[in-house]
Amino acid sequence: MPNPFTPRPYQTAAIQALTAGWSGPNNRLAIVLPTGAGKTVVFANLIEQMRHQLGRKRALVIAHREELIEQAAAKIRAVCPDLKVGIVKAERNHHRFVDVVVASVQTLAVKRRREAIQDIGMVIVDECHHAAAATYRTVLEHFGAWAGTPVAGFTATMTRGDGGLGEVWQDVVYTLDILEMIGDGYLCDVRGKRVTVAGLDLDKVKTRGGDLQDGQLGQALDDSGAAATIAAAYTEHAADRPGVVFTPTVATAQSMAAAFTDAGISAAAIWGDMPRDERARELDRYRSGAVQVLTNCMVLTEGFDAPWTSCVVIARPTKSPGLYCQMVGRGLRLHDGKRDALVLDVMGASTRHKLASIVDLTAQEIGEVPEDRPLREVVEEYRAEEKRRLAVHQLQFEEMDLFGRSSTQWLRTEAGVWFIPLRQELFLFLARNPGGRTYRVRRWDAGQGVRPPNPDPAMPLPEAMQWAERAGRALAPAAFIAKHAAWRAKPPTARQLGYCRSRGIEVPRGATTGEVGDLQSIHRVTGVLAALAAAEPVAA
Known about the structure:
The chain is an alpha/beta fold. The protein has helices at about 10-20, 40-55, 65-80, 105-110, 110-115, 135-140, 165-170, 180-185, 215-225, 225-235, 250-260, 275-290, 320-330, 375-405, 460-475, 480, 495-500, 515-535, and strands at about 30, 60-65, 85-90, 90-95, 100-105, 120-125, 150-155, 170-175, 190-200, 205-210, 210, 245, 265-270, 295, 310-315, 340-350, 410, 420-425, 425-430, 440-445, 450.
């Protein structure tokens, strides 16, 4: 049976990026991995690989929440069972005679507690987007972060509302897109639905620290009756799914839980200041299935590992793509029988706030994601369309280059058909074959319409051009179709200008007789070919 803690290819790549980076001038390096990528497995294996280089020194893992501390310690013990792991948090002070210290940043903020921990040779910061805070900086400075000690930061989102991360982390040496993990089968696909709450006016909610202010947002949700609308939407779209609901305030989490219960869906609310035993009990009920939905006041964005979760409700609209990704990430882990993740985005009227959405889960530029469409499917279609557009652009570039270098005056209709004007009632043009890579030469004159030559081969563009240019020189004087003929530089005639005025053709100031003649030809041939296409598409 394979070892579940053997690093995946991208986890190995992340470790290699760190160790390679530390061999250079920078020592404070960050890794950005999506929720569900297994960052604790990465830094547990990192510790295992670095233990011999550390010698008698130890590794220090810093986290800011109890769940993260316990998870980190458990994972390191599982990956490296021969390493002694101690926890330093509140009344726990197990840092003597251990190889790895996992500590709370709040505890390390106390000077005597951090000074008691000696011989640290490497520091790992979990959820390192918090590291710009003064508490973290004090702790990191004490353990040598600005004096050369190797420091690794791990996060799913390198964003922080009040900035300052660039002063802590010198480089992000490895990052992975959620879409790559979905494509490689490490996360499940995701699709979204909008839940529009009538009366929810987000424009009245002020912004603080770059995001909607929690208290005002919670009040706006409660005043608009959002809880009942969200519960009804959940019943309609996710009745068979276990899920989590993110809310901005404790009161909103509680009202959401009550609304779900009233709708016949078992629900419970949890929040940060909830008594520890009560919160553990509700989490256990969610694990056992006794509770289908957990509503929470922003306590499940980090350190919450419940892979059976298949619906995430964003009842905390946010302007922060990083926060949005953290919330949605709670539903993307793989689990037996889980086909995908459904995101219910709570929407209200908003003209001045650009809210994060499912588009922000990936760094790919994809525009809008239609409702109920899997993200991966939309991105794959977008990539295919981009590839097609690039191919068209390349073909157009090749065409422009070929026609630009030709000594013959080629013109192009408004529909993109290349032609050589010979007389007012005669021109040659190139008909593109299906697939776009070969062409046939066609002749049009007023008396006989479109005429194919004999023989009539399909040719690549350069050969088709040469064929048409030879035919043009046989049908008209060479000077008439030459790009640099002397007559083309003369002033336009009164007859030319009158023709253009009568047909609404705009003539640029200073245009020559050749340039005005080209405008006339383009107008005339565009009309002829458009009429032919309307009657019967020009056959290749």
